[in-house]
Amino acid sequence: MAAPSRTRIQQISDLWTDERLRGIAFQLLVITSLALFFTFIIWNTATNLKHAGLASGYGFLQDAASFDINQRLIDYDSTSSYGRAFLVGGLNTVLVAVLGIAAATAIGFLVGLMRLSSNFLVGRIASLYVELTRNIPLLLQIIFWWVIILTMPRVRDSISVGDVLFLNNRGIRMPQPILEDTFQFVLALIVAGSIGTFFLARWARKRHELTGQTFPVGWSAIGLIFGLPGLSMLFLGLPISLEIPLQGKFNFAGGFNVTPELIALWLALSLYTGAFISEVVRSGILAVDKGQIEAARAVGLPPGLRTRKIILPQALRVIIPPLTNQYLNLTKNSSLAVVIGYQDIVSIGETVLNQSGQALEVISIYMAFYLTLSLLTSVLMNWYNQRTALVRER
Amino acid sequence: MIALTRPGLSCAVFAAFVLPAMVGTAQAATLDDIRAADELKCGINTGLAGFANTDDAGNWVGFDVDYCKALAAAVLGDSGKVQYVSLTGKNRFPALQAGEIEVLARNTTWTLSRDVDLGLTFVGVNYYDGQGFIGPKSLGISSAGELDGASVCIQTGTTTELNLADFFRTNNITYEPVPIETNSEARAAYEAERCDVYTSDASGLAATRATFDNPNDHVILPEIISKEPLGPLVRHGDDQWADIARWVLNALISAEELGVTQANVEALAQTDGGSDNPEIQRMLGSAGSMGKMLGLDADWAARAIKAVGNYGEIFARHLGPDTRLGLERGLNALYTDGGILYSPPFR
Lengths: 394, 347
Fold this sequence. Notes:
The complex is a heterodimer.
Chain A: H1 2-17, H2 19-51, H3 82-115, H4 120-134, H5 138-150, E1 159-161, E2 165-168, E3 171-174, E4 176-179, H6 183-211, H7 217-235, E5 240-243, E6 246-247, E7 252-253, E8 256-258, H8 260-286, H9 290-298, H10 303-333, H11 345-356, H12 359-393
Antiparallel strand pairs in A: 1-2, 2-3, 3-8, 4-5, 6-7
Helix pairs in contact in A: 3-4, 3-8, 3-11, 4-8, 5-8, 6-7, 8-10, 9-10, 10-12, 11-12
Chain B: H1 2-17, H2 19-23, H3 30-37, E1 40-45, E2 53-54, E3 60-61, H4 63-76, E4 82-87, H5 92-97, E5 103-104, H6 112-116, E6 120-122, E7 127-129, E8 131-136, E9 150-155, H7 159-170, E10 175-180, H8 183-191, E11 197-201, H9 202-210, E12 218-220, E13 228-230, E14 233-235, H10 239-258, H11 265-268, H12 278-284, H13 290-294, H14 300-308, H15 311-318
Parallel strand pairs in B: 1-4, 1-5, 9-10, 9-11
Antiparallel strand pairs in B: 2-3, 6-14, 7-13, 8-11, 8-12
Helix pairs in contact in B: 4-10, 4-14, 10-14
């Protein structure tokens, strides 16, 4: 009798000392308690919502929104659904995020290089910009730019640029291109040109690797994407016309307007994130082995080529992961738009929340939206990171 | 596990911030909670001249604030036992639903969907309002129908947004909405001429105009494009509390009709030598048992009137012709004076 119980104890102690089994047991425990926790949370919410007599679910997205939105990238009016309103808001967020990322990257690379410049004045100006923008809260910067734009000339005293473009404190009113049917042919040419350029670039790279001969890809690309379609437009008799804004009683009629809210938000986001990116770029460039630069100088590469062909490709490896963080930050920070009334997804969502009272649903839509956008950005940047990393290993 | 953590994390954040707010909505007796806390939590505007704003000493004053005071006086016996929670147009309903406040007195329009779908109960109307437009005189407009192509500043999260869309749609004219979060920012945008006109409840426009440097340079257009009956509201699910909130409001209105004022209410409430009007006696508790029916003591209404005066006195103090707002009684006069203010009888 004593022997089997001893072995049982041994067995149990074996189980306990087995690292793998212990690991699985703890993971199971964690997962079970997490599952219990969330079941409780969801049950609790559902019960309380029922008690408060509140309807839940996403059916309300099909109801008519009944409010208007001033910046629409897709068709929308007050009879459209709440779901459509969310889509308009989501696209407005994506618009400002994409514009912001492009500008912040350009500013960041420029300022990062400027800070490393041996020219005293250039270096100081870059430092001043970085310290000034990254140490002031973004919210204040957004309001600052908005207030600055509101002090622009009023609509009746607009600054006119050649009588086609008008600047005032209600934004920038631009001529709107009106496309005729035959323009589709030009569009097709542009698409074909882009695809052609892609294959041309691949062929040129392969040939360069094999034979060392270079091919002017840049110029050919301009010719294919812009030159040919441009020529064809002349033949088609310019299938595009401009709708020029005209001063009306209150506002300009015709053309399209870039709102002050978009401009303020875009400026603030780009300048703020640009400062952080410039630091990322600076650290990336400083991480490149000094010997590489000296070697490039020794083989007689001019400074421009040195930066483009030797320094940047190696610096990018260090730059891209933190750069991804900055892109994600910029996208999420765009939700501060609500203070100046830029109609992004949060601003529109809050209106929807107020009209429909579906607080949990609206907040879950926000979260799903930002999560998707952030994950998409991460996936893209990780893919790009892998590509630059591969180059290193070759 | 990595795939789990990200959604898991956001769910946890969600659980931590959003859900606790929802848990407090059990159907407890609100009156008991207020007595236990010895304080009434009353939701008011973040700052609207005449309705709820702070005076030089930092105390909340205004038309809506006085309703909170009257209710606290009736329930707790002291008009000072109010915790004011200032709320924006957007967070006022979640705050009430989640039990952060017991009553909301914040220029809130009574609509079907709010009354039914949001799980709220309007206890009456304390101000009959309507949406209007204010614009600079220099624009030379005399009617809202001439606003084709105008930019219109608007506070988000309010019924005004919907009325505006409806108005321009039915009149088949276009506009650019300029949505702004708070009244003060909307005012700044209007003054900078970011927009041509500003739209809000007519009372709110009068309040805003009173704060301009040159109020006479701005004109309120004659059109009233909507019905905006503003009133206090409570959560669904506690009828006793809704009754108390409703009848405190009715007591203030009836007091004006019956000639009971802040000055004479104590004398009229005397059991001996007080008023001999039976309705006044019932309301002020010297006869009958109306307080007991509500779950309160006999002098509840007398205390409310003693604290802030009757409806007419409250109106005159914060909104009337002698104030900066200079609003006429209009629809808000008693039905006996040509208005539509009418309290059910104390019987």
